[in-house]
Design goal:
Elements (H helix, E strand, L loop, with lengths): L2 H13 L2 E5 L6 H16 L3 E5 L27 E5 L19 E4 L10 E4 L6 H11 L6 H14 L10 H12 L4 H10 L3 H11 L3 E3 L2 E6 L1 H7 L9 H5 L7 E9 L2 E8 L6 H6 L3 E2 L3 E6 L3 H15 L17
Parallel strand pairs: 1-2, 1-3, 3-4, 4-5, 7-8
Antiparallel strand pairs: 6-7, 8-9, 9-11, 10-11
Helix pairs in contact: 2-3, 2-4, 3-4, 4-5, 4-6, 7-8
The chain binds guanosine-5'-monophosphate and manganese (II) ion.
C-alpha cells in the first residue's frame, strides 16, 4: 500500500458525508468485522453510513454492536463507496451493479483485482481488519470499543484463533491493542470460532459421515437434503472445513456445498507450501494460498470429479515441497 493511495483515500472519506460500505456474500468474521469496524468508525466521526452485505449478518456475529444496522441492499445516494474484504466485485453479490466504480477497495486477498478507484490491498495482512486497524488512524477515524470488537473479530476468525502460519507478532500486538481499547477477546473468540448451534453440529455429522480420503486430500460434500435434515438455516458449511483441515497427514481439505440443483460452493484449505488459491482461480474463485473458495455452476455430481481432479493436479510430489514441509501439520 503506497502513501499516495492512503492519502487519497483519507481525503476521499474526509470529503464524503454519506458513505456506503460493502462486504462479500456468505460473509465470514473478517467480512463482517471489516464492514462494521469501518462503518462504526465513520459514524463516530459524524458520517451517515450505510453498511451492506447481500446475505446479511450470520447469527454468530449478532453480538457485535452495529450488526443490526447492516442491510441487504444499498438505497439512496452516496458520496463515497468502500468495498472491504472482497477480491472482486462479483463477491459483493451484485449490490453495486448500477452504481459508479467504488472509491475504495480495502482487502488482503492475493487474488484481488484492484477494481476500485483507490486500491488499498496488502496480501501480507492476516485479515482485512488488520489493514483497517492501521488505516483508521490515517483516516482520522476513532477506534472505540465497538470498532475494536469488530476489528478483533476479523483478526481472530481469519487466523482461526492465531493458528494460521501467517500469524505474526504484529497481529498479536494488534490483538493486545484492541483488547486495551475494550474488545473482549475470550467472548469474541468463543462467538466467532467455538460456539456452534446444534443444527450446525448435525450438519457436520452429515458431512463427516461421508468423509473421503483420496491420496493426501480429505473431502466431503454437504447437500441440500443434509441442510434440511439438520435444520441448518445457512447455505454455508458451518465451518466444517476447519475440522477437515485439522486431520493429520492431509495436504488439502475440501468441502463442497450444494447451493441449488445447478450450483455448488467449494472451500479449499492447504498445508504450507501448497497454493489452493490457484485452483480456486481456475474455477473463477479466489482467496489465499492456504484458504480459497469458488462457486461452480454445475450440479454437485458433475462438480465433484472436476474439483477433485483439479486438486489432485495441484498436489505437489513430496520431493517438490520445501525442506521439511511434508512432515509439518498445522493446527
Ligand atoms: P471460504 O472457503 O471460507 O468460503 O473462503 C476461503 C477464502 O477464499 C476467503 O478468503 C474467501 O474470501 C475466499 N473465497 C471464497 N469463495 C470465493 C469466491 O467465490 N470468489 C473469490 N474471489 N474468493 C472466494
Ligand atoms: Mn478476510
Amino acid at each position: 500500500m503506497d502513501r499516495t493511495s492512503i492519502r487519497q483515500a483519507a481525503e476521499r472519506l474526509r470529503a464524503a458525508q454519506r458513505v456506503l460500505v460493502v462486504c462479500h456474500i456468505r460473509p465470514d468474521g473478517d467480512a463482517i468485522g471489516s464492514l462494521i469496524g469501518l462503518g462504526l468508525a465513520l459514524q463516530a466521526a459524524g458520517k451517515e453510513v450505510q453498511m451492506v452485505c447481500a446475505d446479511g449478518v450470520p447469527g454468530s456475529f449478532h453480538h457485535l454492536k452495529g450488526s443490526r444496522q447492516v442491510v441487504g441492499r444499498p438505497s439512496g445516494d452516496f458520496d463515497a463507496c468502500c468495498v472491504v474484504d472482497c477480491s472482486d466485485l462479483k463477491r459483493t453479490g451484485g449490490v453495486l451493479d448500477n452504481l459508479p466504480q467504488p472509491d475504495l477497495n480495502i482487502d488482503h486477498h492475493i487474488t484481488n483485482l484492484a477494481f476500485a478507484q483507490i486500491n488499498l490491498v496488502d496480501p501480507q495482512a492476516v485479515s482485512t481488519t488488520q489493514i483497517l486497524a492501521s488505516l483508521l488512524p490515517e483516516f482520522g477515524l476513532p477506534v472505540n470499543e465497538a470498532v475494536a470488537a469488530a476489528l478483533l473479530t476479523g483478526l481472530v476468525t481469519d487466523t482461526i484463533g492465531f493458528r494460521t502460519q501467517n500469524t505474526t507478532p504484529a497481529a498479536l500486538r494488534l490483538a493486545a491493542d484492541l483488547m486495551e481499547r475494550g474488545a473482549n477477546l475470550s467472548e469474541l473468540y468463543y462467538r466467532g470460532l467455538v460456539g456452534r448451534s446444534f443444527a450446525a453440529a448435525r450438519l457436520w455429522a452429515a458431512g463427516l459421515s461421508r468423509l473421503q480420503k483420496d491420496d493426501r486430500i480429505a473431502w466431503c460434500t454437504l447437500t441440500r437434503e443434509d441442510r434440511k435434515a439438520a435444520g441448518y438455516p445457512g447455505k454455508d458449511d458451518a465451518d466444517l472445513i476447519n475440522i477437515l483441515s485439522s486431520i493429520e497427514g492431509i495436504d488439502i481439505a475440501i468441502v463442497i456445498v450444494e447451493q441449488s440443483r445447478s450450483r455448488v460452493k467449494v472451500s479449499w484449505r492447504a498445508q504450507p507450501g501448497i497454493d489452493v488459491a490457484q485452483i480456486a482461480l481456475r474455477f473463477g474463485g479466489g482467496g489465499h494460498p492456504a484458504a480459497a473458495g469458488a462457486e461452480l455452476n454445475l450440479p454437485i455430481d458433475e462438480a465433484v470429479p472436476l474439483i477433485l481432479e483439479a486438486t489432485q493436479e495441484a498436489l505437489p510430489q513430496p520431493e517438490a515441497l520445501p525442506d521439511g514441509q511434508a512432515e509439518i501439520t498445522i493446527i
